[in-house]
């Protein structure tokens, strides 16, 4: 039941291309869950507030150059430095809605040509999400939405490659939502998926580790 000792918060990850709607949908989802009385926090990766996050941010803004493998490992380190806080939040009953996670790490780096298995290796052992939702939109459609900023990866040809590598990461546990649907329709599907996951974690679904 709700008060069982192994009741915990759930780890819900949103993935997708730039301009897929992930960020605004994660905000909407968090406020909906709060209204429903769920204790929940919005997280995002990269977490630019840490020292590692500031190095990542400078790289993305084209203010610094880094070897492809070096930046890959920094993105991973940025998740590792939050790992124990993440686990303790979950165990204390707080759910986390996370805008990007290890799948972004693998999709973006392997889109540069790095080996997929090499990209996954530093992620092994991080907390595994209870739910991964992919907001599916083509790179062309995303670019039509406008608002690609000046950041390093916000280019059509690169986003096409990222979409391909995301597709190689899918498995049956992922939920794919058509990102071209009206905002309210996407929101409705997200709410239903998230609430179901929150309930199963309250009932004591065990925590697991990547990759699983
Ligand atoms: N990104 C994000 C990566 O390349 N690797 C990662 O591990 C993560 C989490 O960083 F283009 C890329 C994806 C995106 C950029 O992300 C910044 P936000 O969501 O725009 O802050």
Description:
Helix content is 48%, strand content 13%. The protein has 212 residues and is α/β, with parallel strands linked by helices. The longest helix has 24 residues, at 68-91. It is globular and about 50 Å long. The model has no long low-confidence stretch (mean pLDDT 96). Residues 18, 45-46, 60, 75, 100, 104-105, 108, 153 line the site of 3'-fluoro-3'-deoxythymidine monophosphate. One of its GO terms (biological process) is dUDP biosynthetic process. Belongs to the thymidylate kinase family.
Q: Which cofactor or ligand species appear?
A: 3'-fluoro-3'-deoxythymidine monophosphate
With strands numbered from the N-terminus, the spatial order across the biggest sheet is 2-3-1-4-5
**Mean of residue pLDDT?**
96
Span from first to last CA? 26 Å
Q: Mind summarizing the main beta sheet?
A: 5 strands, parallel
Pathway: Pyrimidine metabolism; dTTP biosynthesis
Organism: Zingiber officinale
Family: Belongs to the thymidylate kinase family.
Protein name: Thymidylate kinase
Summarize the topology.
Blueprint: E1 11-16, H1 22-35, E2 40-44, H2 51-60, H3 68-91, E3 95-99, H4 102-110, H5 116-120, E4 131-136, H6 139-144, H7 156-169, E5 174-178, H8 183-202
Parallel strand pairs: 1-3, 1-4, 2-3, 4-5
The structure holds 3'-fluoro-3'-deoxythymidine monophosphate.
3'-fluoro-3'-deoxythymidine monophosphate (FDM) binds next to helix 4.
């Amino acid at each position: 039941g709700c008060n069982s000792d192994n009741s915990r918060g759930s780890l819900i990850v949103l993935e997708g291309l730039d301009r897929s709607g992930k960020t605004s949908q994660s905000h909407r989802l968090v406020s909906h869950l709060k209204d429903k009385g769920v204790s929940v926090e919005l997280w995002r990766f990269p977490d630019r507030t840490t020292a590692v996050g500031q190095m990542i941010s400078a790289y993305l803004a084209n203010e610094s150059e880094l070897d492809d493998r070096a930046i890959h490992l920094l993105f991973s380190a940025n998740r590792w430095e939050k790992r124990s806080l993440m686990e303790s939040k979950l165990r204390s009953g707080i759910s986390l809605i996370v805008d990007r996670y290890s799948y972004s790490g693998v999709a973006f780096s392997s889109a540069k040509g790095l080996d997929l298995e090499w990209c996954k290796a530093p992620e092994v052992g991080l907390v595994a999400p209870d739910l991964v939702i992919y907001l599916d939109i083509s790179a062309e459609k995303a670019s039509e939405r406008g608002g690609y900023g000046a950041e390093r990866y916000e280019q059509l040809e690169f986003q096409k490659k990222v979409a391909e590598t995301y597709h190689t990461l899918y498995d049956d546990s992922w939920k794919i939502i058509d990102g071209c649907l009206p905002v309210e329709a996407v929101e409705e599907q997200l709410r239903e998926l998230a609430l179901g996951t929150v309930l199963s974690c309250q009932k004591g679904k065990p925590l697991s580790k990547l990759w699983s």
